């Protein structure tokens, strides 16, 4: 499906959107790309983001977008090394909690928390990362019953392959071929939103025969960029396939899964791959994502965009064409 798309921040490079409705407004929490001069590599060193902005809007396709400025930067974070990647924000009991991946001073990704009284920040970081946290791309789901779940993980530069059963390996191991794909992780958060309430669990994606997806199934297996939303009582887990450049989704009956693969949300865009958020606002569903058209294909200089997302009568997401021409 070809659909109208809108670039949201034409004057700057923003990517990896997390999007939520707070107080009747839409708030966007993206990564902030800049030209750092670092050569491209599979570890993602060229994605050298160092701060976060917050944006808000009242009308998705036509309204003005407000830039609330820098709300958190690496200089603010006591344990910081480098690379503030894809964040998310959750609201509970009058406070807003920003969860962010950041390499510590040993170049290991951890997940940190920063807190604000307002959805547009500024966010004040905790002195240390969350205990037992690792890898990247935290996305938080409020299940509406007092429980909040974090989904996280990313391959290659995201370092997920360096862990098994939440323990660091001596050497990274990436499954291959018919071996089971390395799944993302899901964990319930503590009541104070500051730590994990349990050991993170694997979030398994099954094929149409009920078997876990394999590592060689690169057009369907998880790579990075978790997101969860709910539609008609079902949980939709969506993610990027990374090196095959697709946004896909799987459906499950509870926040822990397992989830069964359903199809492609977005075909490849200009650039290496895309992150996303799916949100309902004023009765319509939207897919927020990014591409590299404005930077003429520079994968580390990405631009935030949005389009409407639609479901068919069976609750399947209608695939959106990533290329506009």
TrEMBL record:
Keyword Membrane: no
UniProt site positions, description: Important for catalytic activity, responsible for pKa modulation of the active site Glu and correct orientation of both the proton donor and substrate: 137
A Pfam family reported for this protein in Swiss-Prot or TrEMBL: Glyco_hydro_43
CDD domains: GH43_CoXyl43_like
Keyword match Hydrolase: yes
InterPro entries to which the protein is assigned, alphabetical: Glyco_hydro_43, Glyco_hydro_beta-prop_sf, Glycosyl_Hydrlase_43_Enz
Superkingdom of source: Bacteria
Keywords: Carbohydrate metabolism, Glycosidase, Hydrolase, Polysaccharide degradation, Xylan degradation
Entry-linked PANTHER family: ENDO-1,4-BETA-XYLANASE, PUTATIVE (AFU_ORTHOLOGUE AFUA_2G04480)-RELATED
Family note: Belongs to the glycosyl hydrolase 43 family.
Protein's UniProt name: Alpha-N-arabinofuranosidase
């Amino acid at each position: 499906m070809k659909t109208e798309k809108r670039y949201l921040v034409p004057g700057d490079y923003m990517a990896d959107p997390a999007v939520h409705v707070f107080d009747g407004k839409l708030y966007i929490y993206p990564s902030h790309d800049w030209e750092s001069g670092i050569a491209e590599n599979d570890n993602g060193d060229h994605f050298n983001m160092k701060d976060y902005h917050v944006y808000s809007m009242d009308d998705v396709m036509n309204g003005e977008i407000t830039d609330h400025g820098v709300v958190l930067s690496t200089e603010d974070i006591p344990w910081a090394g480098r690379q503030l990647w894809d964040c998310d924000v959750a609201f509970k009991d009058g406070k807003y909690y920003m969860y962010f991946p950041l390499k510590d001073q040993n170049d290991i990704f951890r997940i940190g928390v920063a807190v604000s009284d307002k959805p547009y920040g500024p966010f004040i970081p905790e002195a240390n990362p969350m205990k037992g946290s690792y890898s990247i791309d935290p996305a938080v789901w409020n299940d509406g019953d007092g429980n909040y779940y974090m989904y996280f993980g990313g391959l290659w530069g995201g370092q997920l392959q360096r862990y098994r059963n939440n323990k660091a390996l001596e050497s990274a191991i990436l499954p291959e071929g018919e071996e089971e794909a390395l799944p993302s992780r899901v964990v319930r958060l503590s009541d104070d939103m500051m730590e994990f309430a349990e050991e993170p669990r694997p979030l398994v994606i099954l094929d149409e025969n009920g078997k876990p997806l394999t590592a060689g199934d690169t057009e369907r297996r998880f790579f990075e960029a978790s997101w969860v939303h709910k539609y008609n009582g079902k949980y939709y887990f969506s993610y990027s396939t990374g090196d095959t450049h697709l946004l896909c989704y799987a459906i499950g009956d509870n926040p822990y899964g397992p989830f069964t693969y359903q199809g492609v949300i977005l075909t490849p865009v200009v650039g290496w791959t895309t992150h996303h958020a799916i949100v309902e606002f004023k009765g319509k569903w939207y897919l927020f994502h990014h591409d590299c058209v404005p930077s003429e294909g520079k994968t580390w200089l990405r631009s935030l965009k949005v389009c409407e997302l639609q479901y068919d009568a069976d609750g399947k997401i209608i695939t959106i064409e990533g290329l506009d021409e």
